[in-house]
Design a protein that fits this description.
single chain, alpha/beta, Rossmann fold, Nucleotidyltransferase, domain 5, six-stranded parallel beta sheet, three-stranded antiparallel beta sheet, 13 strands, globular
Length: 402
């Protein structure tokens, strides 16, 4: 018997996502959990942005709950959703899944209480520092994108970041199964660790295909006709192409672009759009002309970029600024805390060229430590800037000499 699922949707908070067919996505994901027996959509339907969503939600079988807001700026749907969730739990004791498509962090206490009651929870909201905290209280989490990305380069970068996060998660979970695990167990553990993991968001139509795309991380094998996976062991050759260094006689791994990305990810280096990094640096310089503490720096970045970047991504951004020398520690202190200042480059291009140099040098150093071949032809895919062949050759030489 399939498990019973209830959906509680805040139309006002998610109107942008619903406009981009978010309702169909929500129902598809809910149907994967079991049989949807409750579909309720909340909002002040006298508001145009809410009322225009009624036709498609009606076709999807949602029941509408009109919630009037007596005070402007206050979303009365929040408390009504909480009341209805608890009521439906009493009316349908065997309700297993509660899908809270609310788009904000105000429901964290409700998420925790539902987990205490033995219920499974799916949350829905934008990718942000706040949603990272909410996500930890959910069994599943759906990220939304209120503003569809039209820039192909930006979309490609975002997909690359999602893939990096997924591979990092895979490595983390594989470490928990040194003797390997079947694919079902592995994926369930990944979802327990990060409820937002979904291989479909990475362009794969199955978990197996996702694993097959990462031969530098995972080995696949069968046990009694059941597919299993384990972390790639040091020296294992079945998923790696090896080449021999003719001068030293040592065996070097022939790398791929994904292997280089993995090296960067494990060292704390992530990919960002150049304009985002420039906005962060200039913003810090403007906000704190006399310097700032580490806490003030992080709070500013959360305030300015937390809607689109997670806390982990923001910490990585800070790390990159330090490594590139754009954020410098001063000798003076404030209340026993070190003071930091921004050493702002002359332009965004100067900044991105320095970041490219530091990043390539990082790959060179890791390749030497790991006894992996350094192949310059793979590097352009990782760079922020574009270069002529001559400029690129100079960049690589400088990175290798540092």
């Amino acid at each position: 018997m399939s498990e019973k699922v209830a959906i509680f949707l805040d139309v006002e908070n998610l109107s942008g996502w619903l406009k981009a067919d978010g309702g169909e996505t929500l129902l598809e994901r809910a149907n994967e959990l079991g049989r949807v027996v409750v579909r309720r959509a909340y909002g002040d339907f006298s508001i145009l942005s809410v009322s225009v969503r009624q036709p498609e939600l009606n076709l999807l079988g949602f029941e509408f709950v009109h919630v009037y807001h007596p005070v402007k700026g206050k979303n009365s749907a929040d408390i009504q959703i909480v009341v209805d969730v608890m009521e439906y739990l009493a009316r349908i004791p065997d309700l297993e899944w509660v899908v809270l498509a609310t788009g904000d962090s105000d429901f964290s206490p409700l998420f925790r209480r539902l987990r205490e009651l033995g219920k499974s929870v799916m949350g829905v909201g934008p990718r942000s520092a706040l949603s990272e905290a909410v996500k930890r209280t959910c069994n599943r989490f759906i990220y939304i994108d209120e503003e569809p990305v039209s820039d192909g380069a930006v979309a490609s970068l975002k997909t690359a970041q999602l893939r990096e996060d997924a591979l990092e998660l895979l490595e983390q979970v594989l470490d928990k199964f040194p003797d390997g695990a079947n694919l079902s167990t592995l994926k369930n553990k990944m979802l327990e660790t990060d409820s937002a993991f979904d291989e479909n968001n990475l362009g794969f139509d199955g978990f197996m295909k996702f694993l097959q795309s990462a031969p530098e991380i995972v080995t696949l094998y069968k046990v009694k006709e059941i597919w299993n996976a384990k972390a790639l062991e040091t020296g294992e050759k079945q998923n790696e192409v090896l080449s021999c260094d003719s001068q030293s006689g040592s065996t070097l791994v022939e790398p791929t672009i994904d292997l280089y990305r993995r090296f960067l990810r494990k060292s704390g280096w992530r990919s960002y759009k150049s304009s985002c990094l420039w906005d962060a640096l200039t913003g810090l310089k403007t906000r704190f002309p006399e310097g700032f503490t580490k806490g003030e720096e992080f709070e500013y970045l959360i305030e300015s970029f937390g809607r689109n970047l997670t806390r982990g991504e923001l910490r990585s951004m800070i790390y990159i600024f330090y490594k590139a020398g754009f954020v410098v520690q001063q000798q003076q202190k404030r209340n026993d805390e070190s003071i930091l200042t921004v050493d702002l480059p002359k332009s965004e291009r100067v900044m991105s060229k320095k970041l490219d140099l530091v990043m390539v040098n990082r790959i060179v150093q890791i390749c030497r430590l790991q006894e992996v071949s350094f192949i310059p032809e793979l590097i352009p895919q990782l760079l922020i800037n574009s270069y002529t062949q001559e400029q690129f050759n100079v960049l690589v030489i400088n990175a290798q000499d540092q």
